[in-house]
Amino acid sequence: MKYKRSLLKLSGEALMGNNEYGLHSNRLKQYAEEVKNVVKMGAQVAIVIGGGNIFRGFSRIKENIINRIGGDYMGMLATVINGIAFQSYLENVGICTYIQTAIRMDPIAEPFFKDRAIRHLEKGRVVIFVAGLGNPYFTTDTAAVLRAIEIQADVLLKGTKVDGIYTEDPKKDKNAKKIKNISFDMVYKMGIKVMDTTAFILGNENNLPIIIFDINRIGNFKKAISGESIGTIVTN
User: What is the CATH number of the domain that holds 175?
Assistant: First the structure.
């Protein structure tokens, strides 16, 4: 096992499966099994989930119905719903799970406290961080990188629908080539948008490796933790 402690970033859209919105039970079951297999190896796993399957603020902001700040807070609450749902699926497969939130809601989750989160991880518990950073204008990608740094994770793994970073959009360009290794500097130069720039900058400044990989391919999470060459790794 190459990475003892990791943070897995899942988009809200990943939880939709083939649905147009909401949660897909089979997809949640699959991800729970993936996490279970990694925890059984002795790895420590924290998770950040987006909220785009429930509410994507930008779609409303462009219509001038909901302002950016209101939209961002609604998105944070959507991540709480996803966190509670995924906790249930993890516990259903026998994984002890705690939720920590950046916005206090004591009956639902613990407030975020990095030392307590680390203690949970050291005891083999999975920690799900919800509500982003508790502030508007920050994405869940940025929240994931910051939480990974705070808990001293060895790596951040971003689970997506594609198996890494390509020279061009592989859906539009058949000649697009997959990049297995890339530096943060090159990510900036190429304008890669698989994560937002703030997230990449934080990762770069704190020497946090980021692996972009296909979370929907069974066994990929375990392979990534083990150090197998899958997806794309972004490093200094």
Answer: 3.40.1160.10
Over residues 23-57, the pLDDT tens digits come to: 999 999 999 999 999 999 999 999 999 999 998 65
The pLDDT score that the predictor gives to residue 61 is 57
The secondary structure of residue 16, as a DSSP letter, is: G
Query: What value does the mean pLDDT take over residues 45-71?
Result: 80
Residue 127 phi, psi (nearest 5)? -115, 125
Using CA atoms, how far apart are residues 212 and 210, in angstroms rounded to an integer?
7
Asked which of 18-27, 64-73, 186-195 is least confident by mean pLDDT, the reply is 64-73
Domain count, the chain: 1
Helix %, strand %, coil % of the chain (to 5): 40, 20, 40
The helices-and-strands tally (H runs, E runs) of the chain is 8, 11
pLDDT of 201 above 90 = yes
The residue range of the domain holding 32 is: 5-235
The total of other beta-carbon atoms located within 10 Å of residue 174's CB is 7
The residues with which 183 forms a beta bridge, in sequence order, are 235
pTM of the model: 0.94
Neighbours of 24 (CB within 10 A): 15
Burial class (CB in 10 A: 0-12, 13-18, 19+), 39: buried
**Which are the contacts of 32, defined by CB distance < 8 A and separation ≥ 6?**
86, 89, 90, 92, 93, 95
**61 phi/psi in degrees, rounded to 5:** -60, -40
Residue 78 has pLDDT above 70, yes or no: yes
